[in-house]
Amino acid sequence: MSVGTLTINFKFPVVKYNDLILARYINLSKEGSLDIAVVDDKSIKFQSELKLASGTTLLDNDVFVELAKFTEQKELDLDLYKLANEKLTLKKFDVLNEELLKLNSLLDLRTYIKDTVEFGLEDILVWGILRSNGLMGSILKNKNYINLTRWYNHMELYPVLGESHQFIQQECKNLKTSQKLKNAAEGKKKEGHKANFDIDLPGAKIGEVVTRFPPEPSGYLHIGHAKAALLNQYFANQFKGKLLIRFDDTNPSKEKEEYEQSIIEDLALMEIKGDALSYTSDHFDLIYDYALQMIKEGKAYCDDTDVETMREERGEGIKSKRRDRSVEENLRIFTEEMKNGTEEGLKN
């Protein structure tokens, strides 16, 4: 007899794999204990929902704790549970990195998180959360997490974990099939998707088109990067031109060689290969000279307005109070303060 129904929302940015895996794990030991449903609807605001036969309904982060009560282990490390939900779901690498290094150290001489003979609730929890984090693909390639990678890959060998994504995909496929059958019965016809690359480039000539993809090596490749790279490659190929990849390495405090290498590898996975690779820093002298020229011509100025005020002024169309600085003052700040990295220069 079913004790309740777990519903997973696949359209939510962070899919609750940990809840799904735990429910399937429970059903392996107590067949039919939980009904599992998958919805593919962005209008639904929950990540996961557990409706118990008793009439109680739980949402999102409360679901896993409740499901844990149906296992032999029953009790969950709540401190780890809180940390995992707060930190391991983040897409900010600097914060995520700190926690992953701790986890990597913990797993140094352990097969499982709690140093048990078999995996437990904590392993399901952490693995499921990491599975839903889009950064994991690049993280698993990083040699700094050798123990974490070993553990993650080992856990994935268990079908109840490793096949969780296929389970959701199959359920979504079944949903779409059911919807198509329903639409057909009601005489509805789905409008086709009209997105394409059929974009006109006036004046473009075969062999003369040069496109550029300029990622900043301060993080991993994301969907915005991928769209830009694919579009630029398309037009370069369409007009038998060139695609230039130029790393915009102008912010050394945020950049790492690790990110640069990861971006190149991910581009290769998408079969994107530039005709030339360059760096903005290769042209700093030229950029500096142009900046000087623009200041002398009154076309550029130095501005130490704080970020929030600047953002507000831009939104309201209000000119900066520094816009009317004299050419001489701007040249002094640029060549003496900014160039030498003084306290005043760093504010501009």
From TrEMBL:
Tagged with keyword Protein biosynthesis: yes
Matches recorded under SUPFAM superfamilies: GST C-terminal domain-like, Nucleotidylyl transferase
Record InterPro entries: aa-tRNA-synth_I_CS, Gln/Glu-tRNA_Ligase, Glu/Gln-tRNA-synth, Glu/Gln-tRNA-synth_Ib_cat-dom, Glutathione-S-Trfase_C_sf, Rossmann-like_a/b/a_fold
Key words, A-Z: Aminoacyl-tRNA synthetase, ATP-binding, Ligase, Nucleotide-binding, Protein biosynthesis, Transferase
One MF annotation (Gene Ontology) recorded for this entry: transferase activity
Keyword Transferase tagged: yes
An example Gene Ontology CC term for this record: cytosol
PROSITE patterns: AA_TRNA_LIGASE_I
Pfam families in the cross-refs: tRNA-synt_1c (PF00749)
Full protein name: Nucleotidylyl transferase
Species assigned in the record: Hanseniaspora valbyensis NRRL Y-1626
